Amino acid sequence: MNEALYERGLAAQGEQANYPQLVARPATPPVERAPAPLRVLVADDHACVRLGVTQLLRATPGATVVGEADDTLALATQLDMTPCDVVISDLCMPGLHGEYSSLAVLRRLAQASGAPAVVVLTMMSTPQILTGLLQIGLTVIVDKRDVTVALLSALAAACAGQAFLSEHVRAALDNAGADCAPCAGIPSAREWEVFQLYAQGMPVCEIANRLQRSVKTISSQKRSTMRKLGLVTERDLIDFATLVGIT
Positions modified as 4-aspartylphosphate (predicted)? Predict the structure, then answer.
């Protein structure tokens, strides 16, 4: 072998021997990002209820209140302007067209693909109304008496696409039995106007005179409203009016 090449080879080996050793570093584990907080919109026409619900949610890790509404128009506006994952809403708020219900908006949310999940807050214990809610897809219902113990479970169920009924809601439906017929729809603005005046103590003939309608029309609108609300007796009517703050 050429002596010069041999010597250069030895020198090269010596240089390689002085190279630093390359040691593989352990793989850095991926950083786990916390899931984005659940964006919640709270709607109720009673400020004390909104305050209680929002305080409960703000004390809950993983949830954030992105907006509040005190009537159905404000709810619809918030839905247009504020992205959210869940709507927690009262059922009996002033409506868009003079009626006293946010049901029309909540029903559209329940039936629309990709819409926010809905948790219904209510003091309604009329089985016909509760059954009607279930039939139109509003299957997460919390009685306001159960909020502190049931709202977070209801929120989780709504996000998972599962049904949830709080204790007082289940009791009302259980007491009614399997043959409970759902309510017949949403009272119109005119029907609701008649209902309010009657519930406040105005006789049918005076309502007819005030609204410039016939006594027969007023009586028909009163009966229609009671049927749609699942109210059978005058006592039911008074109890309902007291519950939603008409009287």
Answer: 90
| Paired residues of 90 in beta bridges | 121
Q: How far apart are CA 133 and CA 54, in angstroms?
A: 24
How far CA 174 is from CA of 119, 168, 169, 170, 228, in Å, comes to 20, 10, 9, 6, 21
Backbone φ and ψ of 44, nearest 5°: -165, 140
Strand (E) or helix (H) holding 85: none
Between CA 152 and CA 161, with CA 156 as vertex, the angle to 5 degrees is 145
CA trace torsion 79, 85, 90, 96 (10° rounding): 20
What is the C-alpha to C-alpha distance for residues 45 and 70, in angstroms, rounded to an integer? 4
Q: Domains in the chain and their CATH numbers?
A: 38-176 (3.40.50.2300), 189-243 (1.10.10.10)
Contact 155, 67 (CB under 8 A): no
Output phi, psi for 166, to 5 deg: -75, 170
Q: What is d(CA 72, CA 53) in angstroms, rounded to the nearest whole number?
A: 18
Give, for all 247 residues of the chain, the pLDDT tens digit.
455 544 555 454 555 445 455 555 566 666 566 678 899 999 998 899 999 999 999 998 889 999 999 998 899 999 999 999 999 999 878 766 555 668 888 888 998 889 999 999 998 888 878 888 888 889 999 999 999 999 999 999 999 999 999 999 999 888 876 566 666 666 777 888 898 899 889 999 999 999 999 999 999 999 988 888 778 888 888 887 777 667 6
Query: Structure tokens of 94?
Result: 């002033």
